[in-house]
Amino acid sequence: MHSGEILEQIIHARRWANIRNIVFMGMGEPMNNYKNVKLAVGALMDAKYFCLSGKRITVSTVGVSAKSIERFALDLPSVSLAISLHASNQALRERLTPAAKGLPLAKLIAAVDFYISKTNRKVMMEYVMLKDVNDSLATAHELGKLLQGKKVAINLIPYNNTLSSIKVRYEPTESKAIERFKEILIKVYNIYTNVRTEKGSDIASACGQLVVKKMRLGREKGSENGPANGVGDIEELMDQKTSNHSAPKMKLRNGVMVVDGRGDQEDPRVKGFEVYREGFPLWPKDVEKVGKIIKATEEMKMKSMQRLEYMLIGSVIFSILFVIFMWYVKFM
User: Fold this and answer.
1) For residues 83 and 62, what is the distance between their CA atoms, to the nearest angstrom?
2) In terms of domains, do 51 and 116 share one?
3) Whole-angstrom Cα distance, residue 104 to residue 101?
4) Domain for residue 210, yes or no?
5) Does 290 reside within a domain?
6) How many domains does the chain fold into?
7) How far apart are CA 4 and CA 11, in angstroms?
8) Are residues 63 and 180 in the same domain?
9) 1 close to 272: Cβ distance less than 8 angstroms
């Protein structure tokens, strides 16, 4: 995703709610798209744009490399870090998270230690509870020993059943077993542990369920990639809802969006961050504001040019008067 695409999700969401906490999760591995994630986070914290505190932003990673976490600690020290751990040893982690094969657990923990030493911030360890897979009491002790004494918090996540939509069948751990697991981590190893409150599973929209259901519905209707109506993302949905909009089209030229009466249109997401940085809206509903913004910008430029002209004229007049004065002093 481009940084502008990341930002427009927040722009869209803020139409319905006051967004104060943001987690980079469920949209691909952030560390594999580090440049755009960094640009987006920078805009979110910038006082001229979203003005969010870094402690209200969390980037979640499976830990693709130690260097990416170390770079994150140096570049964005005020932003929180979450690790998708899900296992207490390397063998189990590779089984549950194939991407973990590239970074041994010991090196991942070393990178977490580096982040903590540079930022003095607590790291959130995400741990999905899977029945008879990673929820035993022995596993709880192994996890406790791995993280004991570190500035971390563990977030135990009840698994949301995806039924037959995926090949691997997992079952959620019972709530009593989760509580026993949590109790060991807290009482034996003194690690702050929380159980995430799950919402939306009754309508198959909880974490990990929605995209699977969407893909299944698409296949049932004859589409491999999504619903039969062809809407692949929110931009296309907004485009459908505003297809009869009377406002002029938007066009991107050198990172600046302008009104184009000919009806040409380029995708503003290509340079979304540059467009947003210039203060231009990214959504069709805001198209009518573009002309006013451009006009105001041009007026500001004209006023700056006029001030410069007045300064130049003033300096010339002053120089002429000074020469006349010096001539008068010398010869009179």
Assistant:
1) 6
2) yes
3) 7
4) no
5) yes
6) 2
7) 10
8) yes
9) no
d(CA 198, CA 206): 7
pLDDT at 292: 63
Handedness of CA 109, 113, 118, 120 (dihedral sign): positive
What's the one-letter identity of residue 89?
N
pLDDT at res. 326: 86
Both 295 and 189 in one domain: the answer is no
| Phi, psi torsion values for 90, nearest 5 degrees | -65, -40
Residue 24: phi and psi, rounded to 5, are -85, 100
CA dihedral 254, 256, 262, 263 (to 10 degrees): 110
- What is the domain-level CATH number for residue 121? 3.20.20.70
pLDDT at 234: 37
User: Rounded mean pLDDT of 268-276?
Assistant: 44
- Domain span holding position 17: 3-204
User: Which position has the higher pLDDT, 86 or 222?
Assistant: 86
By the 8 A CB rule, do 15 and 287 touch?
no
pLDDT of residue 93: 95
What tokens does 51 get?
Answer: 């003005």
